[in-house]
Amino acid sequence: MSASHAFAIEVHGRSAGIVVAERGGFMFFAAERAFQSLERRLFKQVVHAERAARLALAEHDKRHRH
Questions:
Q1: By the 8 A CB rule, do 56 and 35 touch?
Q2: Order of strands, edge to edge, in the sheet holding 6-11?
Q3: 30: left (phi > 0), else alpha (psi -120 to 50), else beta?
Q4: With contact defined as beta carbons under 8 Å apart, do 9 and 53 qualify?
Q5: Do residues 11 and 31 make contact, with C-beta atoms less than 8 angstroms apart?
Q6: Cα separations (Å) of 21 from 17, 25, 47, 54, 63?
Q7: Helix (H, G, I), strand (E, B) or coil at 20
Q8: Which of 5, 63, 6 is nearest to 36 (CA)?
Q9: Predicted local distance difference test score (pLDDT) of residue 66
């Protein structure tokens, strides 16, 4: 697949990472620590990766509240 099959994912103005088309779905590459739990995870659709990134950020923020 070509580079045109890569998409940036943002959550609340933060760069979550990119997803790159792979056989069977889209591979997630995290841009920052809050999204590290998604690193190299394969999603069937980009929208599934976006949803997972929103959930990962919410969980990260919940764990790191003072």
A1: yes
A2: 6-11, 14-22, 25-30, 42-43
A3: beta
A4: yes
A5: no
A6: 13, 6, 13, 20, 31
A7: strand
A8: 63
A9: 62
**Amino acid 1: pLDDT:** 45
Q: Which tokens in the block code for residue 4?
A: 């045109």
Residue pLDDT, tens place only, 10-65: 999 999 999 999 999 999 999 999 999 999 999 999 999 999 999 999 999 999 88
Place of tokens 């590290």: 36
Bridge partners (DSSP) of residue 9 are: 17
Residues contacting residue 6 through CB under 8 Å, at least 6 positions apart: 18, 19, 20, 21
Position 13, amino acid: G
